[in-house]
Write a structure and sequence with these properties.
The protein is of the alpha+beta class. Helices cover 47% and strands 17% of the residues. One of its GO terms (cellular component) is signal peptidase complex.
Length: 195
C-alpha cells in the first residue's frame, strides 16, 4: 500500500481506507486460514441499483425523444413504479441485509467470517463487528471491537496496515492463529500477513 495521505478529520475517508484494507489482508492469510471473498450481497446491490438506473435512463430517453405526452403511457407509469419499488428494495437491502458488512468470506474448510464496520461522523472510533462461524453455521466467535483510527493512521493521515492487522489479530481468534502460523513460517520476524 502506498503512503497516500488521508484527511485525518474525514471519518468517512478513514473508515473507507480501513475497510478497503480488509480484503487484501483476509484473502492473503497463510493457508489454511485464507478466506475467499463472497460477493453475493454486493452483486445483488449492484443489480438492484443498475436496474433502477437503467429504468430511469429509459424513461428520460423516452421523455426527450417522444415528448411529454409519451410519459403518460401505461409502460412509462409501470417503469416509474418499478423504479421506486427497486429503490425501496435497494434501500432495505443496504440497511437491513448488508447492515454495514464490508467483508464476507469463506475458508476452504468451510468456516465463514462476516465483518461489519461503522464510524460516527466526527468520531475517532472505528467499530467492528465480527461473526466467525463453523461450516454448520455454529457461531465460533462473535465480537464487537472498537479502537481509535489513530492506532493505525499517523498524525499526517498515512495509513499503516501493520498496526491495523495486529489489532485485528489480537482481537479475533482465527486471525491470531493465522498470525502465529505466519510467524512460524517466516521465523518470527513479523506476524504481519497480507499486502
Amino acid at each position: 500500500m502506498t503512503d497516500q495521505k488521508i484527511p485525518i478529520y474525514s471519518t468517512n475517508e478513514l473508515k473507507s481506507t480501513s475497510d478497503d484494507a480488509l480484503l487484501p489482508y483476509l484473502t492473503n492469510l497463510p493457508a489454511p486460514y485464507t478466506f475467499s471473498a463472497d460477493n453475493t450481497k454486493s452483486n445483488i446491490r449492484f443489480l438492484l441499483g443498475y436496474s433502477a438506473v437503467a429504468i430511469a435512463a429509459g424513461t428520460f430517453y423516452a421523455d426527450r425523444k417522444l415528448g411529454w405526452e409519451a410519459t403518460t403511457s401505461p409502460w412509462i407509469i409501470i417503469a416509474v413504479v418499478t423504479y421506486f419499488a427497486l429503490n425501496s428494495v435497494l434501500t432495505f437491502w443496504i440497511w437491513a441485509v448488508e447492515a454495514g458488512e464490508v467483508f464476507n468470506g469463506k475458508r476452504k474448510s468451510g468456516e465463514t467470517i462476516s465483518i461489519s464496520t461503522s464510524a460516527k461522523k466526527h468520531s475517532v472510533l472505528y467499530k467492528v463487528h465480527v461473526v466467525y462461524k463453523s461450516p454448520t453455521g455454529k457461531v465460533l466467535q462473535e465480537k464487537k471491537l472498537e479502537a481509535p483510527f489513530t492506532k493505525w493512521f499517523s498524525a499526517d493521515g498515512v495509513f499503516h496496515p501493520e498496526p491495523y492487522r495486529k489489532w485485528l489479530a489480537s482481537e479475533v481468534d482465527v486471525l491470531r492463529l493465522a498470525a502465529k502460523e505466519n510467524e512460524k513460517r517466516i521465523g518470527g520476524a513479523s506476524a504481519v500477513v497480507g499486502n
